[in-house]
């Protein structure tokens, strides 16, 4: 809606590309269950709507995730919210819990921005991309 999550995603992508990880970016409402099946590594950027809800454009994808076996997949989550609400940026927590419950190995590192991400948050997102690249390589080496 505001572009905040997109700005964060762009920085995460920078971190991935700096570590030679190929990236395909999709908007939540354009992503399908078939997309989720194809990829072994999934990074989700999501903003929190209202008082702790997933945004409407994420609901179908969230439902699809609830029906999938995500064993063998690696994932990470980042997002933004508004600290003036009771629950700050919890959509990412909700999504992370779903991923873990469906069997994904989730990087236990995230970035949460309060509204418009500043330089510190964007740098943290770039580092998250780098950390996810290392996570993917580490997991692949363990097999």
UniProtKB/TrEMBL annotation:
<dbReference type="InterPro" id="IPR029039">
    <property type="entry name" value="Flavoprotein-like_sf"/>
</dbReference>
<keyword id="KW-0249">Electron transport</keyword>
<keyword id="KW-0813">Transport</keyword>
<dbReference type="InterPro" id="IPR001094">
    <property type="entry name" value="Flavdoxin-like"/>
</dbReference>
<comment type="function">
    <text>Low-potential electron donor to a number of redox enzymes.</text>
</comment>
<keyword id="KW-0285">Flavoprotein</keyword>
<keyword id="KW-0288">FMN</keyword>
<comment type="similarity">
    <text>Belongs to the flavodoxin family.</text>
</comment>
<protein>
    <submittedName>
        <fullName>Flavodoxin domain-containing protein</fullName>
    </submittedName>
</protein>
<dbReference type="Pfam" id="PF00258">
    <property type="entry name" value="Flavodoxin_1"/>
</dbReference>
<dbReference type="InterPro" id="IPR008254">
    <property type="entry name" value="Flavodoxin/NO_synth"/>
</dbReference>
<dbReference type="InterPro" id="IPR050619">
    <property type="entry name" value="Flavodoxin"/>
</dbReference>
<feature type="domain" description="Flavodoxin-like">
    <location>
        <begin position="1"/>
        <end position="133"/>
    </location>
</feature>
């Amino acid at each position: 809606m505001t572009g905040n999550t997109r700005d964060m995603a762009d920085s995460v992508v920078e971190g991935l590309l700096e570590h030679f990880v190929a990236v395909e970016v999709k908007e939540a409402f354009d992503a399908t269950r078939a997309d989720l099946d194809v990829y072994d590594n999934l990074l989700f950027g999501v903003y929190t709507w209202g008082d702790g809800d997933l945004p409407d454009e994420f609901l179908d994808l969230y439902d699809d995730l609830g029906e999938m076996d995500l064993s063998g997949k690696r994932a990470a989550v980042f997002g933004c919210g508004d600290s003036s609400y009771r629950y700050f940026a919890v959509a990412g927590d909700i999504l992370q819990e779903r991923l873990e419950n469906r069997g994904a190995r989730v990087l236990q590192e995230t970035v949460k921005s309060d509204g418009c991400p500043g330089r510190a948050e964007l740098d943290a997102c770039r580092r998250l991309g780098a950390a996810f690249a290392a996570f993917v390589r580490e997991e692949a080496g363990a097999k």
